[in-house]
Amino acid sequence: MTDIENAAEIILRKLSFTSLTSGNRSRTTSIIDNLAVDVYSSIPSIVPIVVPETNDDDEGIPLFPIRQVYKNLIIISLGFLIMYTAFNGILSLQSSLNAKGNVGVKSLIVINIVILFSAIFLTGISIDIFGLKWTIIIGAACLGFASAPLWTCQATYLSCIARYHAHHKQKQVEDIVSLFFGIFFAIFGTSTIWGNLISYFILNQSNNPEKFDCGIYFNPLSKNETDKAPYVSDLTRYVLCGVFVGMGIVSMILLLLLNQIRPTKPQPVGQSLKRGLEVIQSLF
């Protein structure tokens, strides 16, 4: 306001404000008011800059208590471990159990083709409609068709609970996300071990061992058909598949215990389909 006062003093001295008539005084007052407005508008520091507050929880989802964060981490890790113990176990036996006509190998090809399709079109739609928790459960039930939404939700769910944990512990989100993913895949990575162990103990119940000449004793003219898939009785097949199906059901029940997380800004179905078509067009 110093500039306004100086300008007013100059005007008063030049116009002899005390000897002015009432008309001149009012005109002088209006000049002073205009100067005040001009000076005020020319000082940018006077105008406050309002910065909108950024909410760390930008999805509008209430934070889980720290115990629920740990519970969800354990549940999703064990659920995927049990699920993929069954899946990887039966997957590795397809060329042996279904060797006739290469049905097992062909089924694996179909599974991966369907995964490619669902990864482009179904992932975003299923998350917006069902939320993360129920998409994981549905994906576990229909693994071949919903593998892409399943893994997308798994990664998103881990990221969300890692962010909640970082909020509670006042730590960097990136560090906690890396920690949670490391714990998950350390547990998940053992699924192949457990699947092969189950297959080993079930398939090695036969009391009719076969003898093969190997190494230096191998005779290429021998009548032993070493390239033929070993015979597996129907009872053994039923027991093996029953165990793996039971493990899949247990994993679904376990995943039901997850807390629900649903995005607050779902995308329209048409927009998700359009984005999928754009992904396909970008490949050509």
Walk me through what this model shows.
With 284 residues, the protein is an all-alpha fold. The protein has two domains: 2-46, no CATH class; 66-206 and 227-282, MFS general substrate transporter like domains (Growth Hormone, Chain: A, Up-down Bundle), CATH 1.20.1250.20. Helices cover 68% and strands 0% of the residues. The protein has helices at 2-15, 22-41, 66-91, 94-97, 103-121, 123-141, 143-169, 173-188, 191-203, 234-255, 269-282. Helix 1 (2-15) packs antiparallel against helix 2, helix 3 (66-91) runs antiparallel to helix 7 (143-169) and helix 3 (66-91) packs antiparallel against helix 10.
Strand content: under 5%
User: Which CATH architecture of the largest domain would you pick?
Assistant: Up-down Bundle
Low-confidence stretches: 35-62
Number of helices: 11
Structural class: mainly alpha
Helix content: 55-70%
Termini Cα gap: 66 Å
* Shape estimate: globular
What is the CATH T-level topology of the largest domain? Growth Hormone, Chain: A
Beta-strand segment tally: 0
Let me know the largest β-sheet.
Answer: none
InterPro entries: Ion_channel_UNC-93, MFS_trans_sf, UNC-93_regulatory
GO cellular component, one term: membrane
Main location: membrane
Membrane topology: Multi-pass membrane protein
